[in-house]
Amino acid sequence: RGAGPRRRITVLGATGSVGRSTCDLLARDPERFAVEALTANRDVAALADLAISLRARATAIADPAVWPELRDRLAGTGIEALGGPEGVIEAASRPADIVVSAIVGAAGLAPTLAALRSAPTVALANKECLVCAGAFFMDSARRAGATVLPVDSEHNAIFQVLEEANRDFVEEIVLTASGGPFRGFTREQLRHVTRQQALRHPKWSMGAKITIDSATLMNKGLELIEAHHLFAVPAERLGVLVHPQSVVHGLVRYRDGSLLAQLGSPDMRTPIACCLAWPARMAAPVAPLDLARLGTLTFEAPDRETFPCLGLAEAAMARGGGAATVLNAANEVAVAEFLADRLGYLQIAAVVEETLSACESRGLSAVPASLDDALDLDAAARHKALEAVTPSRARRGDSQCVF
Ligand code: NAD
Ligand code: MG
């Protein structure tokens, strides 16, 4: 089939939604792919099962408390068991052809930066990396000579239709948004929505954090910032279009009037396959898109008044400096609190807004120029955000959040 030598793949966040879709593709094509390392946060059983069935060389579990259990489960298999956040970074640094970065949140930043230094290609699902430290991240990729391929469906769509030779003729890059479970709701209706309702995404099956981000439209805001860094396009050339069917994933408008789009079923295995096989293509077990059966595709402008998170992200992107880092950290805290039933849906945007203005008035707004800069600003913003949620818990320094 001319696929060339077997590609060695490492999956960071292998037990998550994107991670499992990746492992599914790897398992179907063992002649084409070999698995170098798999990592997870604390789901040892799932990690060990995946590693054994995919014959991975190494694993890493971020939570040190369950590291002994991982070693026990892998005893006698010959699969290496690393532990702790350093273990995840070590796994990310092992030689591989492609590292798939599918950890959720800013926790993925350090391992993904490590991957940029050791792998020629990083397939990036973790958009928070680019929101937290986009300029530094893309600069690190350039210096390491690494290629960053977008897994996020909208960015992958744009990547597929963006003609590098015609960059000067790109008028606009458009990300589509499903609108989430609350499309068409009023602010009044949103006051009482529950975690269960927010977790019921109409089109995509994803991890909890991104599902809530989709319900607030923060996901689209994070994706605008992601696109800004990935494709080096100025904010004013980026647009958002709500498209509830989630069939058209992204569009590029050229100055000759052409509007190029990529279409596909809402299944992450399509963009993941695109990255794993790039620059070739591979087959993926995805339901073919039946346009005649769908009949109608609809598009509408986003409702920024009802869903203020989109505007907050756009403003942070326009402001520059460390505003996007603060936005991301505050949102991670607010979403974790919402998922723990300690914060209402409408308070998510309020906490992000309050944190942004608190950080700005404290002068916490320089653009992160190193990993330490980014992590310091991230930690400071998390503290402020937690203060905005519950002042007493912030004083105890309880600012860790895990999805
Ligand atoms: P998920 O919650 O399903 O999985 C997250 C993975 O990261 C798990 O393997 C978990 O063990 C690991 N993890 C969590 N915290 C960690 C930590 N502190 N240290 C190390 N590992 C940790 O998330 P997901 O939905 O698969 O999303 C992953 C990333 O991909 C996110 O950045 C998300 O925005 C992005 N993304 C997801 C989708 C999707 O369809 N799910 C689509 C586009 C982009
Ligand atoms: Mg997306």
| General shape | globular
CATH-defined topology of the largest domain? Rossmann fold
The helix content is 40-55%
Strands of the widest sheet, in order across it, are 4-3-2-1-5-6-7
Which structural class is indicated by helix and strand composition?
alpha/beta
Low-confidence stretches: none
Mean of pLDDT = 95
CATH architecture of the largest domain: 3-Layer(aba) Sandwich
Under CATH, the homologous superfamily of the largest domain reads: NAD(P)-binding Rossmann-like Domain
What molecules are bound to this protein? nicotinamide-adenine-dinucleotide, magnesium ion
Largest sheet properties = 7 strands, parallel
Task: Write down the domain tally.
Answer: 3
First and last CA, distance: 40 Å
CATH class of the largest domain: Alpha Beta
DSSP summary, beta strand count? 11
Tally of helical segments: 18
- In N-to-C order, the SSE pattern is EHEHEHEHEHEHEHEHHHHEEEHHHHHHH
What percentage of the residues does DSSP assign to strands (E)?
5-15%
Note down, in words, how this protein is organized.
- The protein is an alpha/beta fold.
- It folds into 3 domains: 145 residues, 3-Layer(aba) Sandwich (Rossmann fold); 140 residues, no CATH class; 76 residues, RNA polymerase sigma factor, region 2, helix turn helix motif (Rna Polymerase Sigma Factor, Chain: A), CATH 1.10.1740.
- The strands form 2 sheets. A 7-stranded parallel beta sheet has the order 4-3-2-1-5-6-7, with helices on both faces. The chain has a 4-stranded mixed beta sheet with strand order 9-8-10-11, with helices on one face.
- Strand 2, helix 2 and strand 3 form a beta-alpha-beta unit.
- Helix 11 packs parallel to helix 14.
- It is globular.
- The mean pLDDT is 95.
- The chain binds nicotinamide-adenine-dinucleotide and magnesium ion.
